[in-house]
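[recover] target loaded
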C-alpha cells in the first residue's frame, strides 16, 4: 500500500458520531425520495396500470384475430407481430380484468405505487449509498465503482423492456390459448387485477435481476473472488444454470425460454471479457508499481 493511499484513508477517518449523522442524512434523503416517488406513482397509478396492460392487449388481439383454437396462430406468429414483421391485428372487444374484493384494486394501486416508487427513485437511492461508502474507498476504487451505478439500471431496463415487449405477451398469449370455447362450455381467462400486477412485477424483477449478471461477475472479479480463466472453464455449467433459470421463470414455452436464455448467455461471455480487462489493467498497474519501487535509491 502506498503512502498516498495511507494518507487518503487517514484523511477520510471520522468519529463514529459523524458516521451516524451522515447515515441519518442519507436515510432521510432516501425516505423523502421514496415518499415523493410513491405520491407521484399513486397519483398516476391508474394510467400506469393501463400502460402495463398493453402486453395483455396485444396478446388478446392476436388470440382473438387468429386463435380461439382454430390453429391459425402460433408463437412464431406472435413473435413476428411483436418484432414488427407482421401487422398487428385490429382490436376486437374489450379487455376484461376483475377484482373480487371491495378494496382490492385500491390495494393493488398501492402496491403498484410502491413498486414504481422504488424504480423511479433508484438513481437517488443508489447515489446515496455510494455517497455514504465512497469516503472509505481509495480514489481508484471510487472510479471503478462509478460505472456500475450506470450499468445496473441500464441492464435492468434492458431486461424490463424484454419482458414488456416480448415475454409478457407470450405468457399471456399462452394463457389465453388454454381457454376452452366449445358449444355449451366456456372456460375463459378473467385475471384479477392483483394477480396481473403480481405477474408483471415478478417477471420484471426476475429478468431485471438476471440481467445484472455482468455487474455481479465484474464486481466479483474486482474483489478477486473469480477470474476470467475460472469463468471460461465453467462456461458449460453456467449455460446449464441459465437454461434452468430460464425454464423456471418463463412459461412452458420454448421460445420464451430461448428469449431469456440467449441474452443471459451472451452477457455471461461479455462478463468474462470485462473480468479479463480488469485483470489486464491490474497487471499493468502492478508492473508500473514494481518499476517505481525498483527505481528508488
Amino acid at each position: 500500500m502506498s503512502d498516498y493511499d495511507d494518507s487518503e484513508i487517514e484523511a477520510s477517518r471520522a468519529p463514529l458520531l459523524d458516521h451516524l449523522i451522515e447515515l441519518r442524512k442519507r436515510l432521510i434523503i432516501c425516505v423523502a425520495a421514496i415518499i415523493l416517488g410513491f405520491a407521484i406513482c399513486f397519483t398516476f397509478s391508474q394510467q400506469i396500470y393501463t400502460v402495463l396492460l398493453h402486453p395483455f392487449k396485444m396478446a388478446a388481439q392476436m388470440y382473438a384475430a387468429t386463435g380461439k383454437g382454430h390453429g391459425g396462430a402460433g408463437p412464431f406468429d406472435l413473435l413476428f407481430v411483436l418484432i414488427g414483421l407482421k401487422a398487428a391485428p385490429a382490436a376486437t372487444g374489450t379487455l376484461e380484468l376483475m377484482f373480487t374484493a371491495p378494496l382490492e384494486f385500491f390495494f393493488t394501486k398501492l402496491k403498484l405505487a410502491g413498486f414504481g416508487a422504488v424504480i423511479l427513485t433508484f438513481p437517488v437511492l443508489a447515489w446515496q449509498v455510494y455517497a455514504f461508502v465512497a469516503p472509505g474507498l481509495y480514489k481508484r476504487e471510487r472510479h471503478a465503482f462509478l460505472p456500475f451505478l450506470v450499468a445496473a439500471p441500464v441492464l435492468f431496463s434492458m431486461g424490463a423492456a424484454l419482458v414488456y415487449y416480448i415475454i409478457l405477451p407470450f405468457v399471456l398469449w399462452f394463457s389465453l390459448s388454454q381457454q376452452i370455447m366449445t358449444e355449451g362450455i366456456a372456460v375463459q381467462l378473467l385475471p384479477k387485477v392483483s394477480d396481473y400486477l403480481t405477474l408483471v412485477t415478478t417477471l420484471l424483477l426476475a429478468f431485471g435481476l438476471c440481467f445484472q449478471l455482468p455487474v455481479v461477475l465484474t464486481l466479483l472479479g474486482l474483489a478477486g473472488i473469480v477470474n476470467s480463466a475460472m469463468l471460461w472453464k465453467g462456461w458449460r455449467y453456467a449455460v446449464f444454470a441459465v437454461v434452468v433459470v430460464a425454464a423456471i421463470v418463463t412459461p412452458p414455452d420454448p421460445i420464451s425460454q430461448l428469449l431469456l436464455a440467449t441474452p443471459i448467455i451472451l452477457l455471461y461471455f461479455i462478463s468474462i471479457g470485462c473480468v479479463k480487462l480488469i485483470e489486464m489493467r491490474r497487471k499493468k498497474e502492478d508492473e508500473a508499481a514494481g518499476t517505481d519501487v525498483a527505481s528508488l535509491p
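[recover] notes: Strands lie at 180-182, 185-187.
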